[in-house]
Amino acid sequence: MLKVGENIHIISPRVKEALASRDGAFFVELARRQQEAGADALDLNIGPQKKAGPEVMDWLVDCVQEGVGDMMLSFDTTNLAAIEVGLKKVARNGQANAIINSTSAEEERLASVPPLAARYGAKLIALCMEKSGIPVGADARVGIAMEKLIPRMEEVGVPMENLLVDPLILTVSGCQEYVPQAIEAVRMLKMVADPPPLTVVGLSNVSNAVPAAMRPLLNRTYLVMLMAAGVDAAILDPLDRELMEAIRIVEQRDESTPVGALYLKLFDAVAAGAEIEPGDVDMSDPQQVEIWKTVQVLLNKVIYTDSYLRL
């Protein structure tokens, strides 16, 4: 699974401050730490940056490359001029080993963003979202991919292997009933075409508006379930060691620890379209109980509250 580091994000006060003050050393170090933690690519989210976008992206790419060399970068902004600056800086012979994040199915975005990806040979994240918003059901999200996103990529010459469809994760805090739909959308997307499109998720969205201490458990449990459904890439926090360990356990099928064995039972159950059972869990092990309770919340079988682990 492709792991895209999310930590250079304008929503972070420290990142926003460092951009404003052009603190290059901060970004060199943050990029290096994500690479060393196991990220395969880095997302550079600079926000809309309507006026200064190209200059900001030009400067930021220089900083990041000082830290991580030619590592794959993801250009995350609605400013197309800034994205193109980034693509030009990393391109070799006119082709960019990079990701554009992102287009939606809105007419304006579909008209302008996919041709840019085709021109530079870049990967493109395409969101299952129209102007009216994010559909709640998995089938409707897949419908957007099949009826609008994929045909447009074919029309402009973006190869299927460069398309990353994002079914869009909603938060368990306030949108809990729709959390399982992203898993099902990933599963369906792997079956609707030959070859199927690649899939990507913004993992941390599932725990938005959740107390900070509870977010990592939700994130890593959900990712195991998404991996079981076939997700190909995730934008995530590589500095979360337990999250990266969960990925390693699944990818290496390491059942040498009780928690690792439970992750694999969860993975296998979801891959088979089933659920883990109470008998799969050692209820005397607090870590396993936390995973069990979290799975029930993510499947919308137990109502989420900030105190769900204590119930």
Give the topology string: H per helix, E per strand: EHHEHEHEHEHEHEHEHHH
CATH fold label: TIM Barrel
End-to-end Cα distance, whole Å, is 34 Å
Helix proportion range: 40-55%
**Outline type:** globular
Largest sheet: 8 strands, parallel, barrel
By secondary-structure content and strand pairing, the structural class works out as alpha/beta
Q: Report the CATH architecture.
A: Alpha-Beta Barrel
What low-confidence regions span 5 or more consecutive residues with pLDDT below 50? none
Cα radius of gyration in angstroms: 19 Å
Number of domains: 1
Helix count from the secondary structure assignment:
11
* Overall pLDDT score: 97
- Beta-strand proportion: 5-15%
CATH class: Alpha Beta
CATH superfamily: Dihydropteroate synthase-like
Reading side by side through the largest sheet, how are the strands ordered?
Answer: 1-2-3-4-5-6-7-8
Question: Which helices and strands occur, and which strands form pairs?
Answer:
Layout: E1 2-9, H1 13-21, H2 24-37, E2 41-45, H3 53-68, E3 72-76, H4 80-90, E4 98-103, H5 107-120, E5 123-127, H6 138-156, E6 163-166, H7 179-189, E7 198-202, H8 215-229, E8 233-236, H9 241-252, H10 258-271, H11 286-298
Parallel strand pairs: 1-2, 1-8, 2-3, 3-4, 4-5, 5-6, 6-7, 7-8
Summarize the structure.
The chain has 311 residues and is of the alpha/beta class. The protein has eleven helices and eight strands.
Attribute tags:
single chain; about 300 residues; alpha/beta; TIM Barrel; 8-stranded parallel β-barrel; 11 helices; 8 strands
Protein described:
An eight-stranded parallel β-barrel has the order 1-2-3-4-5-6-7-8, surrounded by five helices. The protein has 311 residues and is an alpha/beta fold. Strand 5, helix 6 and strand 6 (163-166) form a beta-alpha-beta unit. 48% of the residues lie in helices and 14% in strands. The longest helix has 19 residues, at 138-156. The protein has helices at 13-21, 24-37, 53-68, 80-90, 107-120, 138-156, 179-189, 215-229, 241-252, 258-271, 286-298, and strands at 2-9, 41-45, 72-76, 98-103, 123-127, 163-166, 198-202, 233-236. Helix 5 (107-120) crosses helix 6 and helix 6 (138-156) packs across helix 7.
